[in-house]
Amino acid sequence: MSTFTEAVVDAHVVAKRNVIKIRRVPEVLVWVLMSPIMFVLLFAYVFGEAIDPGGGLDYREFLIVGIFAQTVVFGSTFTGAGIAEDMSKGIIDRFRSLPMSQSAVLAGRTASDVIYNVLSITIMSITGLLVGWRIRGSLLDAVLAYLLLLLFAYSLSWVMAYVGLLVPSAEVINNASFMVIMPLTFVSNAFVPLEQFPSWLQPIVEWNPVSTLIQASRELFGNVPEGVPVPSDAWSMQNPALYTLAWTVLIVAVFAPLSVRQYRRSTLR
Prior knowledge:
This protein is mainly α.
């Protein structure tokens, strides 16, 4: 068996171990899924009548994809919190004593979080359909939208994996990630149209990869009415899928090696 094959098998075992936690501690999954449902209902019924996305677009259709993006971005924190918890409990030391690939722990952890995000998006899609959201594009385009959301979330999981290896506890990473992810999602077009931001803030929104993730997903789901122009001439918003994919590749290329190197350093202490 080749080294690469062994690493894949080891990562699969670690991912399976993390997924089993869903069955062992179902309360965690329940609260994970309740959060996006709460956001959908809150924004759809409380703020929905007060915000006009323009272009003849219904706010609920405008909203749902923003909730998708927010949830998968916040879901990336599970990687960091899980690794930080395993570090503090000595589980990583046990992994180190086993004849397994050093990258498998991180690869398995990030892979298992894709499953969390799939479950979250499934529940959100059902909730969205109940409040009036519809997939108006082709089936292929919808699949591509879901894949784009999951790929971007997967890349952020590597960022959180790196942070999880640096901090002493899961509580620290929850607080630290909140300070970064909250502005990243709210200074975007997730809940408010780009043109409604102050002029000095609009360039930040335009080049925010979360904004382009949402714009690309809305276009693929068919939630942008025909004939309505993109509310920005920025290259990022004119080519949102390409820009988002570029960020996804860059994040993984930078933080996957950094995480593996930090893992080796952490386990040698």
